Amino acid sequence: MKYHIEVHGCQMNVADAERVTTVCERNGYVQCESWKEADLVIYVSCSIKQKAEDKIIGHLKELELMKRKKPQLKVGITGCMVRQTSTREDKRPDKLLKALKSVDFVFRMEDLDQVDYILRDETLLDIGRNFGDQKYLQVQPRISTSYRGFLPIMTGCDNFCTFCIVPYSRGRERSRLMSEIVRDAKKMAEQGVTEILLLGQNVNSYGNKNEVYDEYFRETPEHPFTHLLREMNKISGVRRIRYTSPHPKDISEELIKVMAELPHVCEHVHIPLQSGDDDMLKRMNRHYTAKHFLSLIQMIRQHMPRAGISTDVIVGFSGETDEQFQNTLKVAKKAQFDMSYTSMYSERKETYAGRFLADDVGKELKNERYHALNDLIRKTSFANNKKYVGETWEVLVDEVRDGLASGKTRTNRTIRFPAKGDLKAGDYVLVEVNKAMEWILEGELAKVTERKKSGIRAVKKKASSLKAVQYAHAS
Ligand code: SF4
């Protein structure tokens, strides 16, 4: 029996899909590349934007035809679109089961252990757990790239930004025990992972709400997230540590100093602006001002002058005037971002904004603002890229194709260069940068510094990689 997983959305969904993979395989399913060959298809869904949901619903409708030809095909859905774990037999099925004929079962990710019963056609034991139960993270993931690991350190969010669905779909914020995270990271390193991305909806508030220290760690006066970075930095074999997504209100000078001090923590900060206007920020329930945001940028540049800085911005949020959008442009210009995940506001019915604030900025105006902001970021990115020309940077190779290789610097810049020898994804190299473009850099390979580790997975059958269809970021 074959299974296929379709992943949509953020890296957290990729990390979740790696755990769904484990459950499918322990029930005897074998992974296949296309849903067309599969006996079981599971969607890890995203609901950050209506567009994301519509795309998944479109796919699932296509599967209705397929099920007519192949009645034994099972279809499941999890992720942010799901509110309640259920099957068609349940008295109160999730609304997705009513709306989509092709779907056989839906499950909240917290109820992953229930999928064992569903796949064996046994009765569900205990459906509808509480929000925030994160025992599912103890399921060992089947890592889908052999050199980069996605490691969730917390789930959920308590911030309730007025536009955001995450607190409703992922529930309240809960942090994992530090010992559990470090154990998972060591296991990843043994398997050949050299870059680890720590994940959370509000990653830098790790440990703010629940106890994360246990017998392996004595409580320190330091903030738990910075302490976790120190523990990660000690893990043998891990060369790069990144994290996403933080909230500006939880970025402290202590955190930035620790990032600058630890050799394996990369000099890249993703810091979501969302708007550069104080009234809009209040309307979004963001808990910072434009002035405070810019002081954080200054602090990052003071401690890590060459840090890469990226952001998220929503244009055309409820009531946004031209003047308010101009304020966003002003902040973006001062911040000199390298990159922005810009999105046009898309109303989500279940959020505060969806219920109480009008989606009153026209499509055309949203589109205009989207392009105006992107044009500005293109210029700031180009100006930042020019500083790299003539310098040599370490690159983790992500792709080698048609004689060209590309990968990322520690500052998260993409560099493309002619591939030589038997270069492959996962190798570390030094590249001399000779050309700056708006979004990427070009250069020449100077030296291979470390070959991709073979790791334990090299002797096992390689899992096909899980790639997410991405939309925009939260936080
Ligand atoms: S945007 Fe980020 S911080 Fe705000 S509610 Fe969503 S996940 Fe939480």
Structural summary, described in words:
- There is one protein chain.
- The protein is α/β, with parallel strands linked by helices and 475 residues long.
- It has 3 domains: 2-133, Methylthiotransferase, N-terminal domain (Rossmann fold); 143-386, Alpha-Beta Horseshoe (pyruvate-formate lyase- activating enzyme), CATH 3.80.30; 392-453, OB fold (Dihydrolipoamide Acetyltransferase, E2P) (Beta Barrel).
- Helix content is 31%, strand content 22%.
- The protein is built from 13 helices and 20 strands.
- The chain has helices at 11-26, 50-69, 95-99, 114-119, 166-169, 178-190, 224-233, 253-261, 278-283, 290-303, 322-335, 352-356, 363-386; strands at 2-8, 30-31, 40-45, 74-79, 86-87, 105-106, 148-152, 154-155, 174-175, 195-199, 240-244, 268-270, 308-315, 339-344, 392-401, 404-408, 414-418, 428-436, 440-450, 468-469.
- The strands form 5 sheets. Strands 1, 2, 3, 4, 5, 6 and 20 form a 7-stranded mixed sheet that branches. A 5-stranded mixed barrel has the order 15-16-17-19-18. The chain has a 3-stranded parallel sheet with strand order 7-10-11, with helices on both faces.
- Helix 2 (50-69) links the parallel strand 3 (40-45) and strand 4 (74-79).
- Helix 7 (224-233) runs parallel beside helix 8 and helix 11 packs parallel to helix 13.
- It is globular.
- The two termini are 39 Å apart.
- The model is unreliable at 456-464 (pLDDT under 50).
- It binds iron/sulfur cluster (SF4).
- Iron/sulfur cluster is lined by residues 157, 159-161, 164, 166-167, 201-202, 247, 474-475.
